[in-house]
Amino acid sequence: MRVKVIEKEVIDPLGETVVDKIKIIPVPSKINKISYFNNTKPNADVILAAVAESLNKEGKNVEKPAGAGATEEQLKDAAGADLSIIAVGDCGSCSTWVILDAIRLEKEGIPTISICSDNFMDYARSLAKSHGADDLRIVEIKHPISGQEEENVREKAAETIKEIKKLLNID
């Protein structure tokens, strides 16, 4: 049996770009209100509910479509808080828009924490970097998320919540 091996060069869709660095807004020492920005992916609401319950801060729920960027109105709604937590990036297009919406909020002066699955963390970080947001706060949740029972998603979210609390200097 003969096998012909062909090597192909794959082009990185993010490319190498030269962009201005985006100032990542520091998380305020006092947080009165958090916007929980739900991209309506299956179980994003479960993750955000678990985060909200754990942080025990006044919250505002904002929704947007998963595979598209937030509208100006949705961004304005999410910006009506001291911090926005955005979930969930667990595929290519939804991870893209979680990161790009976080960058848009950071540019408006709202600190963000984005939640992406571990399978998409490298991509999410590369995308943020390609847009000048090298230090964008991105935390991971174990993949898969869609199609999982609520109890399983909450167990996965428990580890993510630990990361979020570290970013917020909460024990």
TrEMBL record:
Residue ranges of every copy of the UGSC-like domain listed in the record: 9-169
InterPro entries attached to this UniProt entry: UGSC-like_dom (IPR057767), UGSC_seleno (IPR049831)
Record protein name field: UGSC-like domain-containing protein
